[in-house]
Amino acid sequence: MSDKKSKLASGSIIILLGSIILRLGGFIYRFILSRLLTTTGYGLVGLTLPFQNMFIIGASGGVPPAIAKYVSQYKAVEDKNMVHQVSVTGMKMMIFMACIAAIIMFLISEPIAIGMWNKPEALLPLRLVSVIVPFSVIVGSFRGVFQGFYQMKNIFYSKFLEQIFTLILASCLVIVGWYAAGAVLGTALGFLVSLFGSYYLYKRDVKDAYINGQYPKISFREELSLMKEILKFSIPVVISGIAEIFLYDTGTFFIGMFLPTFFAGFYTNASAIARIPLILANSVSTSVLPATSEADSLEDKELLKMYMHQSYRYTTVTSLPVSGFIVVYAVPLMVLLFGSEYAKGSEALWILVGGMFFFSVYLIACSMCQGLGKPAFPMYSLITGALVNVAFSYYLIPLYDITGAAIATTIATFVLMVMTVGELIKLSKIHPPYDDLFKMFIAAGFMIIVMYLIPHTIIGMFVGLIVGTIVYIIIILLLKAIKEEDVVFIEHFVNRSGPLKKYLMKFVYYVKIYLHE
């Protein structure tokens, strides 16, 4: 049972560390561009982001997860021919869909930039999005194969190459005078470099190491049947992915329609900070899906309850204080990361971070529903949330500018959280650990009060972070809001803390003793 107790924690930590590194790179990218470009120029970059994300997801069609599923399935039975065929067929499908998506993006760029937004300066950046899509989609197919082979390090290397070269090339193109278009083109070139790197990793670790022979070609009819199976798995994934983009970026689209361009830059950066609490939620949600599925297949109600309660506690105990910190220090955070010109986005930030906390809880509930074999309802609730966001954004943004966009997104995420958690309770007959969660909210409340008493400057923010964290930990322990088995999560993190490990393990030891009393 001790191995089962640590399973969720160990899987989450591995994914978490990679996510933190990649998220840090994203902030460096925004930090540099927000200083190289004017607020209007950075706003143009922000306006392209929803289309980049939407067309990348739409063009890939959810095929990378399908490739991962079938590659893993056929590899388990040592059917190398089908592993090879799934990889090749998936690649063909993605290239075809990427070309279609690129053409569509090119054609709609003028009606959107000039017809809907009345912003001719947005035309070239939007058209350059069509260059990004093919490279990013092909990279996605390699990542799907890596996932199927459980080569998570290769996925990380692929993403790291994309990010580091996007940062370097986008910055260089902006400096030489390409302005916002240079930032978008730099993203395309970053994906191109990642494509070369991903192919090298694929050839070294998959093709030469595993698919290293000549295999008979399947008939056209058999390949069509395989495509049908891939699409059958992919369609719900892509619908969910596009709905999630709508949920995140509907505000940006309507900002482009109703407000001056620079508001899009304010909102884009506010949204980036607000999503920090999602880092852990994404990590836990990835690990809880197979864990929940295992417990359900074993018909072990107690094990299922343990995994579900751990997921709620891990997510809340970490995301809640981070959200509280961002709410209190929204202004100095925006100034520190992006410059004083972006302080105007702070009001949207402290509202939006509440919405991202709601979305964190949704992600956990969504993964648990999927683990219980019911993936449809989370998709329906996500679509509902996206539609709610569209309606409220259209109404509130003309009235309250980017603050209205933040309110709309927060309302939408609250709706989908309530819907999905409610459905999960019906499916599992297991309620969240309300008592523990309530104690965490009390601890976060004390932390926020203490931080509000400290000056809201950049220096005060760092002081508040230290003092607030100490207060939060003390209250959490006094109230025993976490359980003895939750300390496993802390241990896995401490084991990767390098030279600090021997000191932090003493703290973990005393926490265990206290919780055991």
Helical fraction: over 70%
Overall, the morphology is globular
SSE run: HHHHHHHHHHHHHHHHH
Strand content: under 5%
Tell me the span between the first and last alpha carbons.
21 Å
The pLDDT mean sits at 84
Give a quick account of the main beta sheet: strands, pairing sense, barrel closure: none
Low-pLDDT segments: 1-12
Compute the CA-based radius of gyration: 23 Å
Record field, number of beta strands? 0
The number of helices is: 17
Main structural class: mainly alpha
| Assembly state | single chain
Brief digest:
The chain has 517 residues and is mainly alpha-helical. Helix content is 86%, strand content 0%.
Provide an overview of this structure.
Helix 3 runs parallel beside helix 5 and helix 4 runs parallel beside helix 7 (220-258). It contains 17 helices and no strands. It is an all-alpha fold and 517 residues long.
Main attributes of the structure:
single chain; 517 residues; mainly alpha; 17 helices; 0% strand; globular; disordered N terminus
